[in-house]
Amino acid sequence: MGSLVKRGWATGFSLLRRISDIKSTRNCADRNLIARMMMSTAVNSSPSSGIMSPPWLMLPPVFEEGGDMIYKFYNLSEDKEESFRKKRSEQMADAATAKFVGSSHGWLALFNQRNNHLFLYNPITNRQIKLPPIETLPDPHINLAPNGRSFVRKLILSSSPDDDDECIAMMIFGPERRLAFCHPVTALNGLLLANIIIILEMKACFRVDDLECWDLTDSLSPRIHLSWDLDCSDLTRYPKRASYSLVPITQLNLVYVEEYNQLFLVVRCVMERMGPDGLGVSPIYYGKNKGWDNSFPYQTTWFDASKIDFAFEKPQCLEGSLDGLAMFIGLNHSIAMSLTTKSKLNSNCIYYTDSNDLPIPPSSFYGGHDIGIFDYTNRTISPCYDFPLDIKCIKRIMPAPMWFTPCQH
């Protein structure tokens, strides 16, 4: 994992020059190629040494008087709380002021906006790894604000650094949502991104708004396959985002099933301003001094899921079932898995956490609260842990809970 620290973030300017040629790859041959890649990977790939367990819900950490930090989690599969103490002497100087920007393969990703420092932390093994700061990237005039600061929207890993010395770290950062890879993959700049998934076995990564597959087999010259435009699929029936709309807005999530090497596209509908009756509420503007009324929180209303098969022209809608899987969706990348008979989780359900990555007004009583369990068969929502769904009982939760997937070794 030392290569992550020594080699820094890289950029792929040659890839940028080829953006104009990407359109030529949008054809049936590319879809068939990607389908063969995924089928071949599912057959030939060997199991990872780190076995993926059902995710835990990461709760806000507790700080004690002596400066020790206690990381707290709710283990949904076993219906119990887990906690790990990190002594003050063991903490990085950045830890107290850092923000959680991701969770992947048993590691947490943290970013300190004061100095643009990034680091990974495994709360179970107590191991930490410092990553190169953002100012090491080219184009600082784009990546950094006038005050020298930047921000990271999401950082994920292709695998656990404990298992793989060639682990890929990838982040979405800055006002233009640029993408940067940390060794050994070169970085791509300039594309607006919504969701990223890395599949290490086939060295591929997927993104949506258009559904694209990036072949990372050749790290010096990654190839982009554009499969199809989602605007041409059945997703056009969902409303587009409109500021302060009374119609739920839609968010697209790519969900990966590692054990079956299968991708799903999940549409999440969120009411931007939810009233106690479950209906949208029109906004009120109080003027320049007081701004907008923040009396009504946003709330998830429902989900739709489709299976992605690159041999077809568009995603295949799922009706009444998630193929027996449990899905986990939130700010970090989304995953799905089949469940054992001992698990207290429910199949054909979507477990979700708050996915809002925009600043919450300091005066608002909500934020981080949009957490629940969506039964895909019955189309109903139930509470998760002790976080209420009732608008009158909602409280602000900071930092917002996210999914943490422990790895068994």
TrEMBL record:
Transmembrane segments: none
Residue ranges of every copy of the KIB1-4 beta-propeller domain listed in the record: 73-375
Cited Pfam families: Beta-prop_KIB1-4
Name this polypeptide is given: KIB1-4 beta-propeller domain-containing protein
Species the sequence originates in: Castilleja foliolosa
